[in-house]
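call fold(seq) -> tokens
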Amino acid sequence: MKISAKTEYAAIAVVELARRNDDREPVRIRTICEAQGVPARFLVHILLQLKAAGIVTSTRGVGGGYRLAREPGAITLRDVHQAVEGAADTTGTVTRGLARRSRAATVLAAAWNEAARAESDALASITLADLVDRCRVPGESMYYI
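ret:
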């Protein structure tokens, strides 16, 4: 599986938003960048794509920023990946062109599709809540007010 820098930055941003999900204030882009080391110039465009996909919401103005549109447990890595990359084309161009003429290409196309389904299922099984849990330092206790 090849993950683009765009998908990496999107995932890092939404994990940071998930970590701050209980905050009352929207999270500013600068806050995400400082916390995670993500370049702001890329993040602006990525967050707009995530907003268009319904993964984040934004608030304009002085107290503005971004928040998750749903609970962290309801957003998966597949949601994030599809928001920034679109639906995956699982059959290679060569395989697709030969599929009607070559048994090997037909079998290979089915194998590519099977691998893509497994990849998609794996991404769908990981939620932002899971990733926030993994971010916690072992032995770190939750702080409640």
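The first helix runs from residue 5 to 19.
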